[in-house]
Structure formats: structure tokens, C-alpha cells
């Protein structure tokens, strides 16, 4: 909620000052507040969502596919970082203050996804991750039985 609220604050301040036309002026005090809100958002993201893109994949992939999982994770992360870096200014020009609401919406979607679709992995050894995914209400249909240690009987 922390990241979400500061994205909304930044978008609201910019929206109030510039509207949908993109014309207006900022007083030094308003500019300072917007800068503070952006810095607080970045700090909050760096302490919460930011590291999860690196930490979670390294902990949820079974040992057999961990290197490939991390390689895919790094590649996807770098691609989207490049993509956002290339298109941020264009999106800002077109969406104006709505861009900050867009990113707030992305934080909301991430939060909902994690809450409902990410199983608790605290205290689970890496060798048991297949079982965690196989027992999850949503992901179980995507995990083959042989991915779980002791998941099928040898007769």
C-alpha cells in the first residue's frame, strides 16, 4: 500500500497543477513535495517490491532448473527495464499524470497476484518447492507429478 499511495500522490499533485493539457506551473514548494513523494516511493519500492524480482525466483525454482530459471528471470527483468526506460517519456507525454496512476495500478495488480497466486515458502527447503507448487490451488494443474519428490509410486 505504501508504494501505491505515493504513486497516487505524485499523479494527483501533477494532475492538479497541469491537468490534461499539460500546461501549468509548479511553485518551488509543490515541486519539492512532488520530489519528496517520488523519493519516498523509490525508497519504499527499493525496500519492498524491488528486490523481490531477484529474490523470489532464486528461492522458488527447484534445484534442477534453478540456473535456467534465474537466467530467464534476469533476461526478462533487463528487457522490461530497457522497455520502460525507452518508453517512459513518450508515455508521460501522452498519459501525463495518468502515467503515475498506471504504475499505481501495476503495483495493485502485483499485490493481488502475489496475495492470491503465490504460495507461502517460508521455512520450505529448496528440495520441497515442487511439492509446494503441486499443492497450490491454482498452480497444481501445471506441475507434473514427477516434479514432486515422492510424487508418484514406483511399482
Automatic annotation (TrEMBL):
Q: Which UniProt keywords apply?
A: Membrane, Sugar transport, Symport, Transmembrane, Transmembrane helix, Transport
Transmembrane spans: 29-50, 71-92, 98-118
The record's subcellular location field reads:
Membrane
InterPro entries, alphabetized: MFS_dom, MFS_sugar_transport-like, MFS_trans_sf, STP/PLT_plant, Sugar/inositol_transpt
Q: Main location per UniProt?
A: membrane
Q: How does it sit in the membrane?
A: Multi-pass membrane protein
Q: Where is the Major facilitator superfamily (MFS) profile domain?
A: 1-122
Supply the PANTHER family for this chain.
SOLUTE CARRIER FAMILY 2, FACILITATED GLUCOSE TRANSPORTER, SUGAR TRANSPORT PROTEIN 10
Family classification: Belongs to the major facilitator superfamily. Sugar transporter (TC 2.A.1.1) family.
Report the protein name in the record: Major facilitator superfamily (MFS) profile domain-containing protein
What is the organism of origin for this protein? Brassica cretica
Amino acid at each position: 500500500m505504501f508504494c501505491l499511495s505515493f504513486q497516487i500522490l505524485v499523479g494527483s499533485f501533477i494532475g492538479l497543477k497541469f491537468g490534461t493539457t499539460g500546461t501549468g506551473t509548479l511553485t518551488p514548494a509543490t515541486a519539492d513535495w512532488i520530489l519528496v513523494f517520488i523519493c519516498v516511493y523509490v525508497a519504499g519500492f527499493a525496500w519492498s517490491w524491488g528486490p523481490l524480482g531477484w529474490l523470489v525466483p532464486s528461492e522458488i525454482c527447484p534445484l534442477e532448473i534453478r540456473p535456467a530459471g534465474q537466467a530467464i528471470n534476469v533476461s526478462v527483468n533487463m528487457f522490461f527495464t530497457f522497455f520502460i526506460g525507452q518508453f517512459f517519456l513518450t508515455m508521460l507525454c501522452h498519459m501525463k499524470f495518468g502515467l503515475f496512476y498506471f504504475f499505481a495500478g501495476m503495483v495493485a495488480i502485483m499485490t493481488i497476484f502475489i496475495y492470491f497466486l503465490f504460495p507461502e515458502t517460508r521455512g520450505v527447503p529448496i528440495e520441497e518447492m515442487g511439492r509446494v507448487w503441486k499443492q497450490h490451488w491454482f498452480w497444481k494443474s501445471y506441475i507434473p507429478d514427477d516434479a514432486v519428490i515422492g510424487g508418484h509410486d514406483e511399482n
